[in-house]
């Protein structure tokens, strides 16, 4: 089975395999990797604010790229590499979100699942909460 590009052609290798969202996906994945490397736990009382920043900077945009490509009749097909990057970026951002609450997880959520939750809840923070179970319920 071959992926189809946004222009309707078949995906091959290299640049021909890229969707119109390629650079945005690359930037989101790079930002998530960099943030994971430099993460330091937030100060007392700042966990919720920092966690929300990870939702705004990462979870929402990653999910948005996926949704935008699959709505409006465009039905863009991402290359396998782009889907891996979206998947890794989403899970990096989710791990950062959870770490703000002292929860160490290695999530393995799909972008499709995140998008489905977002469509149901209309709340990117709820996407992160449901996929990480953070903050822990007391």
UniProtKB/TrEMBL annotation:
Domain annotation DUF8055: ranges: 21-135
InterPro entries per the UniProt record, alphabetical: DUF8055
Region Disordered, residue ranges: 1-23
One Pfam family cited in the UniProt record for this chain: DUF8055
Domain of life: Archaea
The protein, known as: DUF8055 domain-containing protein
């Amino acid at each position: 089975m071959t992926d189809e590009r946004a222009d309707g052609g078949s995906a091959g290798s290299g640049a021909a395999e890229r969707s119109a969202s390629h650079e945005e996906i690359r930037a989101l994945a790079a930002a998530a990797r960099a943030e994971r490397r430099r993460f330091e736990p937030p100060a007392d009382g700042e966990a919720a604010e920092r966690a929300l920043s990870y939702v705004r900077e990462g979870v929402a945009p990653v999910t948005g790229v996926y949704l935008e490509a699959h709505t409006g009749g465009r039905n863009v097909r991402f290359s396998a590499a782009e889907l891996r990057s979206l998947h890794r970026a989403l899970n990096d951002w989710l791990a950062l979100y959870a770490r703000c609450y002292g929860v160490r997880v290695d999530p393995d959520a799909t972008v499709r699942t995140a998008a489905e939750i977002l469509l149901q809840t209309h709340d990117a923070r709820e996407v992160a909460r449901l996929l990480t179970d953070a903050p822990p319920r007391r």
